[in-house]
Amino acid sequence: MAWTCSGRTNAELVENLFRKGLIRSEIVKGAMEKVDRAHYTPSPSRAYEDSPQSIGHAATISAPHMHASAAESLLPFLHSNARVLDIGSGSGYLTAVLAEIVQRDEGRGGGRVVGLEHIPALRDLGERNTARGERGRDMLGRGRVKFVVGDGRKGWRRDGGEEGWDAIHVGAAAAVMHEELIEQLRSPGRMFIPVEDSRGQQWIWLVDKDGDGKVKKEKTMGVRYVSLTDAPK
Ligand code: SAH
């Protein structure tokens, strides 16, 4: 799947992902068009390749088709008032795309996205990359997107998440399904999380909490992510 959607420009990359059915909705397409991937990749010449890239600190910016898949999966919960947590925000790219999605009516709803990193330099990188675009600077200035430092396995209860999160995206593979993160989901709410099985294979799980607080977990595709770990000393 990777590489086949690459483009020469951001618009072309997004169009190719759309044509191949990896982006399905106009909302995700519009948001990905507004976030220039070149602001988030270390190599400008490879910015519009549909492949992951190293961003230092043993982290990678995921391939655009994976970001598209995550955004599409969470979309029903990314309404204009949504509180969204992006764990392992890394480059900040998906954090910004999620923020564009909840801001799609130009922010009238008050939705917010928080990017959470355990490496301070990567928290800073996500914020710096987002500030490279005018829309990103504006969203940062209005507190609609924010980058914080903490252990993602424990979630985050501040910056709009006091009552829980409408959507949680986890961008690194968890060793176990963290109950604390499920607790921090709102009713209703959805989490997209890669979890490693006993054979070391990773799978995306979609965890849904319905309006009555009932939790349903669905194992979907096999993936390859950086691990959700202790912060380096
Ligand atoms: N969505 C990001 C993915 C970055 S790679 C992007 O596409 O740019 C995974 C990230 O998870 C790394 O930045 C890593 O530092 C972070 N991470 C790993 N364990 C973590 C933890 N316990 N808490 C918070 N972040 C963590």
From TrEMBL:
Biological process per Gene Ontology, one example term: methylation
One function term, GO molecular function aspect: protein-L-isoaspartate (D-aspartate) O-methyltransferase activity
Subcellular location: Cytoplasm
Major site of localization recorded for this protein: cytoplasm
Pfam families associated with the record: PCMT
InterPro entries reported for this sequence: PCMT, SAM-dependent_MTases_sf
GO CC terms: cytoplasm
Keywords in alphabetical order: Cytoplasm, Methyltransferase, S-adenosyl-L-methionine, Transferase
This enzyme's EC code(s): 2.1.1.77
UniProt record similarity statement: Belongs to the methyltransferase superfamily. L-isoaspartyl/D-aspartyl protein methyltransferase family.
NCBIfam families, per the entry: pimt
Name of the protein in its database record: protein-L-isoaspartate(D-aspartate) O-methyltransferase
